[in-house]
Amino acid sequence: MAAQNHREAVVTVPITVPYVRYSIRNGHWFVARALAKLIEDSGVQKKEIDGLCVGSFTLAPDSAIGLLQHVGLTVRWLDYLPLGGASGIVALRRAVRAVEAGDAEIIACIGADTNHVDSFRQNLGSFSVFARDAVFPYGSGGPNANFAFLTSYYMRTYGATREDFGKICVAQRDNALGFPHALFRKKLSLEEYLNARVIADPIRLFDCVMPCAGAEAFLVMPRARAEALGLPYARVRATCERHNAFADDPIQFRGGWVLDRDALYGSAGVKPSDIDFVQTYDDYPVMSLIQLEDLGFCEKGAGAEFVRQHTFTNDGSFPLNTSGGQLSVGQAGCAAGFLGLVEAIRQLTGRNLGRPVPNARFGLVAGFGMVVFDRGLCSGAAILARSDA
Amino acid sequence: MIPPLKRTPRKNPILKTRSPLVPPWIRSRAALGLTAAAACGRFELQVCGRCSAVQYPPREACHHCLSEELVWREQSGYGELIASTIVRHSHENYFRERAPWPLGLVRFDAGFSAVVHLHGGCAPAPSRVRVGARLDKAGQGVLVAFPVDEVANMADDRELREMTCDPKFRKIVVTDAKSAVGQAVIRALVEAGADLIWAGYSEPWKKSPGMAELEKFPAVTLFPLDVTDASSVKEAAASLGGKVDILINTAEVHRAHGISSRGGIDVARMEMDVNYFGLLRLAQEFGPALRARAADGQSSAVAWVNLLSIYALANYPPHGTFSASKAAALSLTQCLRAEMRTAGIRVINVFPGPIDEEWNQTLPPPKLAPDAVAKALVGALKDGVEDVYPGDVAQEWYARWRDSAKVLELELTR
Fold first, then answer.
1. What pTM was estimated for this model as a whole?
2. ipTM of this predicted structure
3. What is the mean pLDDT of residues B183-187?
4. How many Å lie between the alpha carbon of B81 and the closest alpha carbon of chain A?
5. Considering only residues 326 to 345 of chain B, which have any Cβ-Cβ distance to chain A shorter than 8 Å?
6. Residue A295: which residues within 8 A CB-CB, separation 6 or more?
């Protein structure tokens, strides 16, 4: 359980810097806009922010330290987490511990990236030594080729169909229709999903996220401080992370969550059936199915059957990616690793920008990412609770 | 199944010739070990000297026990294709132009997984495959999955043809058709399905046996070429340069002298003028034309082949000046490789041991038949390798040289 004392750290002030497909600004601009909005929405003064955690791929040659002088912050605690889709969960873990240990009082956690016309291609070519040596020279298809392998393997091994994946994508698009920051707000039909342009067999256009520019952020602070400031907050019941799990699996049909889920639920004092909504890291629909399996909502390989039995809109039997996920909202680099957390905080504090999940008390957010070679190395998850839960 | 290669229709002369591009070519130093082995036709990976774990991708420490004792060892490449895809959208122009591009994910028997190029003859996943290493258009080592058993038209696979320099349907210059090796190469190229072979000859007043036989092949056309004469080379390039897909430089002069066995430098100068400066003249005149056509459709310019000698690696004192001229040529071919890299033209060096011809008369056997040199050379084109050491003597010298160049020098000079 989270520390039941006056230093219990909570999350508050969910903010989004609106997404754009391309921006002429650099990453620092998006970090600064996020910081400004955190300050504006929280009523906290800039000098009171004494901790900073940033996930970004587009600050080079700066890291978080360069940002401090850029935006004029003095901090007692600093972390730089270019961990892609796991940035948010890991940032949350770090910041909660720091606040509870008294190392910092108010920590800004920001995921931000810009996107220029050639950003994605440049990033692919220099993403990691292994990608440069052993992936990019093979077709240069980016992660699409990697997840095409996984999708094809998963379909063949467990009997999932494209209709199963499509059901998730269509439902998430419905969830995005009311979300003002989503880049895709046109209704998507299953037929359009099934007949879309092939990118890398069997992956088609609507299986892929759209890289864009933007930022997501929140504050971590002691519960007493949030209450004193009059800020609605969500409580952090439990978190977990694991990197490079199951390194000997021939292909990534499961992730680190398998090893950590029992401790996660145990620590949180809840069961999967208590969870009111789930934000998976949905870079591809097959990964959402794998996360649902690995986080205990169904058995390994039963993801497709689970999809057939449930509805995933915010008013459905299993609300999933309640603002549309990155498949409909867009992938703003590391901000995509914060997207689920920020949406979870909104749902649990009644600060929805889009369609609310009715009576949401517990939410689970998963993080995943960093395909350094042939699999996403990072996994993580957090269970958040409404303040009165 | 692989459709057999068809001769393409005549190119539309109004269209701009496609500029050559290469796939991503940056590699870490460790990864270059894979390229170095592939350049010699071998698939090698690092194996831990302490715990025997195979490493992929190449790296600096064993992923299992952290040992730094990583040794490059030949791999059988057997494994299971567990998934495949076809890239239809790529971030690199090279692959955009050549889409759709098949890829596979293979689980190797040796216990690791890898992304590989996928030969069209492989059965759909799950299936057994054999992975080999080839040089891609950037001249870097890449993994290619092949079916375990040969299928028809293996060499005609579209992806594989990007990595090889197959003479089939191509137009080829052989710079010296008078020598026994030159003639053997031409015969081997005819057999390999070359469309056109321009056979060079110098000093036409010196009749050479075998030339009349060559003219009987419909694919062969004789043309005058003297690699010691800049204007001869220039004229040949002006007329043929824009059509040549492969240039094979067989021109060489070979005498059996060291330093003191002959006074004056006139013989040594002749060896240099043909073996080294001849190469330089050819490269200056034909090089740009080959580079410009390196992506010109199915039968594009694709390779430059040099007939060197195993004596280029280590001087053989009885043929000391000849050895030196071949060593000079070898160094220049490394420069040529650098200049051909961005166009994706493969520079192939053939290092035969002593060939069974007049200047090696007094050398003891084993000596290499010209047909054997030709077979190795054409094989190198078909495999797309960079360095070939045909014959037992070459193989042994090369092994000794790899083991210790200094010790080989001592063995030859003591």
1. 0.95
2. 0.94
3. 97
4. 10
5. none
6. A257, A261, A272, A278, A364, A366, A381
